Amino acid sequence: MDRRRFIKLSSLLGGTLTLSTQLTGCASAPQTKDYFPAVEFTHGVASGDPTPSAVILWTRAVPADNDDSGYVRWQIATSPDFNSPLRDGVAKTTRNNDFTVKIDVQDLPAGRSFYYRFFTSENRSVTGTTSTLATGVIDKLKFAIFSCANYPAGYFNAYQAAAEDSEVDVVLHLGDYIYEYPKGGYATANAEAIGRDFMPGNEGELLTLKDYRLRYATYRQDNGLQLLHQRKPFIAIWDDHEIANDTYMSGAQNHSADEGDFFARRTAAIQAYYEWLPIRPPMGDGNPQIYRSFEFGNLVNLYMLDTRVIGREKQLNMADYKRADGQFDGKAFMQALHNPDRTLLGRAQFNWLADEVKQSSARWQVLGQQILMGKMHYPAEVLTSEREAVAGAIEGLLGLLKKQQAGATLSEEELARLATKLPYNLDAWDGYAAERDKVLSLFSDAQKSLLVIAGDTHNGWVNKLTDNSGETVAMEYATPSVSSPGMEGYLGLNTAQAKRLADALPLLIDDLSYCNLHERGYMTMSFTLSMVTTQWHYVSNISNENYTVFTRHTERFVN
Ligand SMILES: [Fe+2]
Fold it and tell me: How many Å lie between the centroid of ligand 1 and the Cα of residue 427?
């Protein structure tokens, strides 16, 4: 840092120190006006939630002298030398928010790229790059889309790969940015061997604010994730594991009474999420409302939904629909599943979405959300098989299909085996079928071109989204996990078996046209006025930082 320049800047600002250029109030002045003691920039820099005139800048600044608070300066400029910053300021960092610093920089020009950095009198952060959204006519736009990064399961090479793609404009994160499980829990078996253990003091399941904060601090040590945050603005929403597995409005599968009050846990989880992500919660940091929209000129309207916290009713469980004689009561189950009042988004969010869609004139409508929307209706005998028997059951059904295709007549029983289907995952939109229809109708009634993006499953998928008459009204593209194990892990398949299953599933599931069940990676979506090109990129390795990236599948949408 050039000390002369620093004094000039600080005297320009006098004693007025703001944490943000609009959102938060004034911070009190540091004791020595021209001298800001060193901080440690422990986790790089990040930016997010760009609008045409604003963007969130983020860093973590821990006072080097172990104080409870300190100050950093920030600058944003159009050139990397910062000779004439567009905006600058001073922000306070305190233990109260885990020394995370977020600035909502306002009054920036639209559609521009920027450099930004934080510094004290003694040291400075790395320089980040970000941008504001363009308005009006936009020729092209590229998203990189992620979900399900699990630190103990592997290195975040998928983030690294996207950081190195200079054409990516914005990163969308669809949740499971962290996982709440303890050491020894889900997907931690290789952690020690690959150097991805949790920090000391963070080995338990996450329950308290301290637990959640330390988990973010662990995940953000990953070089790929740090680089992606440094280079690209994020637009993020949570899924369940930012709180606990299979979260719904008032509880979670992975929350039990002996773990304390669910809402206290949820509040802690959300606080840590807001602290660590470069996000602008629409109702402020104290409010769990996260759903919001982004307008990319005339090209794309992006709606980021919350399918977890605000309005989700508890997941149905088929085991609850056993009759006294032990038989599955399919009729009662289907009635519950198609109950028109059953909600996933909640009424307020649904009405908000309806209003937004009505007003949007963008060429493409994109629903950014967590869970699969396609009808993943598997033959019932696959779902009722033990894990080890699933691959065999699928082979058996494929045999029947082949027989049928060869012109043989199937028996009634064989036809029933193929035709009797049940939704596979009641935590996904399949468990909230009536509301899925209503959401799709919002777009199809307004004759808008809709693309739905999803995460959550750890595998790549392409689904037709169909209405009740079977007509395709939208497409769904689902991104593979960054590092969480996929269906190959769940079913214990080797690569050849997983590939074979991926070829088989689209034959057995009506609306499914592509899947990859065994590789980790991410998705990109490139928009022009005439076409949307979606690509699935997979990394060759997550056991260390050496990898190659392969683009294995491309979908073109021209509706
Ligand atoms: Fe996940």
Answer: 12
